[in-house]
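Need residues for this backbone.
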């Protein structure tokens, strides 16, 4: 019962309430504070990357004593379903929201709605074009694209014809990674992008598209696959066509399949992120925002180029397997 309700009752039954309180020693017992809740909504509930994000978030939820709800769509291209999920949890009454957005602009109204309701929003992995976002936690995707481009230049002696296998058209991460590649190669005439195509983060479709592109462009020197699904699809197809090693593959992320193919020489290098840290720092930062603490506007979780030579270095092992430390 709220204090103003008690005050109202005292006004009507002053003498009776005074006698009761004296009889009980005048003690007032407050209800214990309930555990706060944070909802983590990701692009897709499937895949190694998002499972690792979840592990990091769960570790932080235990440490900071908050209840964590993990949810997401089954398709990274399904923006409407993600918006519906955000609205559902806002109606339910969560205390904080962590969002890996499926769209840079279309999720902005949902973030504004959360802010009006007093629910702080932290974004991870993908940004949202909204000033109401308290903090973004993730990599610099433009710089990651540049690093991928530099590695491919090294692998091919700064010349060749290349395919960019991208994921979701319109995704800010996809656009920034590809822009980093193209800008890095702008001053190197020998590095030519013959085609860029999207496979919607479906590894089966990414493999099919890889075959279509290689049938169309038989003299390709390399493929840059810009997320895990694209990397897995491209690697499987190169192996199936027996063109692995002949066509250089620079990938993204560090699924178990990718690390195995890295050792086998099907993938020459991969750009790794730190999804465990994204999940952990997402919860930590959301808790701080819920407690009205100042939080950084951006936290760069870093990326690194991993190849067969450096993948067993101790520092790189910590990035590849952060959850076993």
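Answer:
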């Amino acid at each position: 019962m709220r204090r103003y309700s008690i005050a109202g009752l005292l006004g009507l039954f002053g003498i009776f309430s005074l006698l009761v309180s004296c009889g009980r020693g005048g003690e007032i017992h407050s209800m214990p504070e309930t555990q706060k809740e944070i909802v983590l909504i990701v692009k897709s509930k499937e895949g190694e990357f998002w499972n690792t994000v979840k592990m990091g978030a769960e570790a932080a939820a235990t440490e900071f004593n908050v209840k964590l709800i993990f949810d997401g769509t089954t398709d990274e291209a399904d923006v409407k379903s993600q918006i519906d999920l955000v609205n559902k949890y806002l109606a339910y009454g969560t205390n904080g929201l962590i969002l890996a957005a499926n769209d840079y602009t279309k999720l902005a109204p949902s973030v504004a709605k959360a802010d009006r309701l007093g629910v702080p929003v932290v974004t991870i992995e993908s940004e949202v074009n909204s000033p109401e976002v308290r903090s973004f936690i993730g990599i610099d995707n433009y710089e990651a694209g540049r690093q991928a481009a530099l590695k491919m230049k090294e692998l091919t002696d700064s010349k060749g014809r290349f395919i960019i296998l991208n994921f979701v058209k319109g995704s800010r991460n996809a656009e920034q990674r590809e822009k980093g590649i193209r800008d890095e190669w702008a001053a190197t005439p020998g590095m030519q992008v013959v085609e860029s195509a999207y496979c919607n983060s479906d590894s089966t479709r990414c493999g099919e598209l890889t075959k279509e592109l290689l049938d169309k462009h038989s003299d390709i020197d390399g493929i840059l696959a810009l997320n895990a699904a694209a990397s897995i699809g491209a690697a499987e197809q190169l192996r199936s066509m027996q063109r692995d090693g002949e066509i250089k593959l620079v990938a993204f992320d560090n699924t178990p399949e990718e690390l195995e193919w890295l050792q086998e020489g099907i993938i020459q290098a991969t750009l790794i992120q730190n999804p465990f840290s994204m999940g952990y720092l997402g919860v930590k930062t959301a808790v701080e925002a819920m407690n009205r603490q100042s939080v950084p506007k951006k936290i760069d979780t870093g990326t690194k180029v991993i190849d067969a030579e450096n993948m067993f270095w101790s520092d790189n092992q910590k990035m590849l397997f952060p959850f076993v430390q």
